[in-house]
Design a protein that fits this description.
single chain; alpha/beta; 14% strand; globular
Length: 322
Amino acid sequence: MDPWKEFVEKVSVLQLVLTFLFMGVFCTLLTVYLLFTSLWLLPALYLTWMVVDWDTPERGGRRSEWVRNWAVWMHFKNYFPVKLVKTAELSPNKNYILGSHPHGIMCLGAFSCFGTAYGGFSQAFPGMRVTLAILAGLFRLPIFRDYLMSAGLCPVSKPSLEYLLSRNGKGNAVVIVTGGAAESLSSAPGVNTVVMRQRKGFVRLALEYGADLVPVYSFGENELFQQVVFPEGSVARSLQSAFKSLMGFAPCLFMGQSWGLLPYKTPVTTVVGSPISVPRLASPSEEIVDHYHHLYIEALTKLFHNHKINCGLSESHDLHII
């Protein structure tokens, strides 16, 4: 491999990892610091505008195709590489909720496929507009919120999802990493665990707005980092859970290569499954929600087993749903 190409790809991935870990905190601290300097007017004006603009993330955001087309995302994708596999058509005359699994440490496969123009989604599904929904609290951090919105990301809050499914026309594909922080704590090489049994909110939302459900699985996502997985009942695991309940995300100890921050160079294959037709019901009963939740789990399990061998797993690998 060309050493220069390899270097550029590593830097492209490292910048995203550093952005994920530190940019939100850095931007917040910088804004507060500048308030106590001679440049105080700049952050004061920005914070005033931020208050006025407070609800924009939950009203479709402010996507920038220029940002989504940055060449850095192409190099980022090629590092692993990340590949999107289409298994069925998605009609631009309908809306969809795509459940993305597994969470992994940083959802790098999902970000590449759904948060950039190089992921292949627009080419595979012409006429569709994809939006990756992430932790809502990140959109309360100054400057960082604007960067996230420019990539086409939106909060995973109910008002945000309702807007995308009801007031943004047709042809919307809303991607929700349904396992969330709880699933990230189970992320480790060789592990194929998804947190799904009690995650039914996205199914209810799909029924309320008549959005078809689509299972998505990113093979290789859990292989990108090594993680210290604390046993259930341990003090460390309890602290992680408490932090998750308080802050919305769970701190974890993970290690990659090259100073521990660079993920392993492992191919990630994101398979988009077939849509599950969902009726529109203003107030779906628990029985109906459970029915479509069961259909979704069955479709996700089938998707995993149909593609696991082609995606580098052996026949003995199974999908564990908790």
